[in-house]
Specification:
Chain lengths: ~270, ~290
């Protein structure tokens, strides 16, 4: 062993830098610093405005306390609608995202179909649900239908993409074995692909239900139905105590759904 | 059963030829072992027969039917008459032993029968009989990934036999098993081949096992057959020819001792990758 042999000088070691070229390395550091300085300057971030904002926030909070749970029927209607939107959109969205996931998996479909499937998912992913909701509210009018459509698109974008990736990672040996028995495309899907991605599919669906519950409240703000609309109105009318009540219920629902979905996902292998 | 391979060539993408104008004639039953080093083209040869890999050129006929020209339903009907067992077993891990075994009938049942697991009674009877034959009757509802390697390969054999094949392809069926289990599996394949009068094409690494279990041995080297005879004919000179240049002499174009022993870099490495990447798709006729 050279380490134990006497007479050899002490050897030093340092982790090699991620970017070997020092000009490039320090140039990049300088560029990032310069951009940050320029960006903070041009966005007019100022401590003065933060200082002004704090008392305003305090005023809002003091008017929000104590939360007002008295308008129960309005709140219950809103939440029931939000949950309906989330569940219906998750069911439809998850089924569609399985379909688009297959169409967007390189190892399962011909290249032209794959590109089409990827394009659909990419478009579904490119806009935040709020923007999609605005478009659907314009297209189909105010109300929960626009919310359902929005969250279906949202689900396809997220679950579809991850399903496509899960399908691309399956063991090709099992596919080969089913093909060798004389099974056609659908039988290969049913026997070699689905069993391998099923746990992922269930886990993602539950996660998406969770996620849709949250998003269903948000899309209501632009008129796509549910509790979001009620929340927006209470802000507009300075009913901050009612708004706080809505927010508290929302947090409770999210916590419940998180605990529930976490438990189900843990029980899957 | 008459299998006639004539002038068969295969290249993956723009790579080297993995099979070079290969001719092979197999008739009757019994085990034919195909030996040769990694990258010699053994797996590609088997997969060209049931078209899991598309041959580049040449002809393969099974009982007079040209296999290389088949499409769609004809191709699937051909495949169901050829059973295959795999080095990594390729069982559907998350399904039960019985579902794996019944999947051997996928080529015979409708999609709805397959998806709802409502297989004909005679298939279920046959599955139980074969599982008893290999000693797995107590594992019917166990998930496939809970079995040991030897048990899994026995499920693989039963799945292939469910097809009532007229030819069995075995691609290194024992390479993932320990020596003792390997011998048990080879004995099982040998017994079944005898009982059912079933011809077997067996890719195998282990030359002494090939001698022990095969009636005929074919030596493959760089995609061509350079030996064809009985176990007795396979002397050390023949073995040297089969494995020469592949185990360390390094005199063959870009094959170097290091690259062959680690089986990376060289053209053979690229070709093996090609098997997995090119042909694992569900889409037929993409070659």
């Amino acid at each position: 062993m050279s380490a134990s042999s006497p007479g050899l000088g002490r050897r030093t070691w340092r982790r090699p830098p991620a970017i070997a070229n020092p000009y490039l390395r320090y140039g990049l550091y300088a560029a990032v610093a310069a951009y940050f300085a320029w960006a903070t300057g041009s966005l007019e971030l100022s401590w003065a405005r933060v200082a002004q904002g704090v008392p305003r926030a305090v005023a809002i909070f003091s008017r929000a306390l104590p939360p007002d749970f008295s308008r129960r029927s309005l709140m219950v209607d809103g939440f029931v609608e939000s949950i309906q939107i989330a569940i219906v959109a998750t069911l439809i969205g998850v089924i569609l995202s399985l379909l688009f996931g297959i169409l967007a998996a390189r190892n399962v479909v011909p290249r032209a179909v794959y590109l089409l499937g990827r394009a659909v998912i990419a478009v579904a992913r490119s806009f935040h649900p709020i923007i999609v909701a605005i478009i659907f509210v314009k297209a189909v009018g105010f109300g929960p239908f626009a919310g359902v459509l929005t969250l279906i698109v949202y689900s396809i974008g997220f679950v579809g993409k991850l399903m496509a990736e899960a399908i691309e990672e399956i063991d090709p040996g099992q596919v080969e074995a089913v093909r060798a028995t004389g099974g056609g495309f659908l039988k290969v899907l049913a026997y070699a692909v689905f069993p391998q991605v099923l746990p992922r599919q269930v886990g993602l669906s539950i996660y998406q239900l969770d996620s849709n519950l949250r998003a269903s409240a948000v899309v209501g703000i632009v008129g796509a139905g549910g509790i979001g609309g009620t929340l927006m109105n209470s802000f507009r009318r300075f009913d901050y105590d009612f708004a706080l009540a809505i927010l508290i219920v929302m947090i409770v629902i999210i916590l419940f759904s998180e605990a529930f979905s976490g438990r189900i996902r843990r029980s899957l292998t | 059963m008459i299998l006639d391979i004539d002038n068969l060539s295969k290249r993956y993408g723009a790579g080297e030829l993995v099979l070079k104008e290969l001719d092979l004639h197999i008739e009757g039953s019994g085990i034919t072992a195909i030996v040769g080093s990694s990258g010699a083209g053994k797996s590609t040869l088997l997969r060209c027969i049931n078209r899991l890999v598309e041959p580049t050129s040449g002809s393969i006929t099974l009982d007079g039917v040209e296999l290389t020209a088949l499409h769609g339903a004809e191709l699937r009907n051909m495949r169901r008459s050829i059973g295959m067992i795999f080095q990594n077993f390729n069982l559907i891990d998350r399904l039960s032993v019985m579902e794996n075994v019944l999947s051997g009938r996928l080529g015979f049942v409708t999609f709805f029968q397959a998806a709802s697991r409502r297989y004909p009674q005679e298939d279920i009877d046959r599955a139980f009989r074969l599982l008893e034959r290999v000693g797995l009757q107590d594992y019917v509802n166990k998930r496939a990934d809970t079995l040991s390697g030897g048990q899994r390969q026995r499920v693989g054999v039963v799945r292939a036999l469910m097809q009532e094949p007229k030819l069995l392809l075995a691609d290194e069926p024992t390479a993932s098993l320990d020596p003792k289990t390997s011998v048990q599996i080879l004995e099982l394949i040998g017994d079944i081949s005898g009982e059912l009068d079933l011809p077997v094409l067996l890719n195998i690494h282990n030359v002494s096992q090939a001698r022990q279990f095969a009636q005929r041995i074919v030596g493959l080297r760089f995609g061509t057959i350079i030996f064809d005879g009985t176990a007795a004919d396979l002397d050390s000179a023949a073995l040297d020819r089969i494995y020469e240049g592949t185990a360390g002499t390094g005199d063959e174009d870009d094959w170097t001792p290091t690259s062959t022993s680690t089986s990376t870099t060289s053209t053979a490495g690229a070709a093996t990758c090609g098997v997995e990447e090119d042909d694992s798709t569900l889409v037929e006729d993409r070659a």
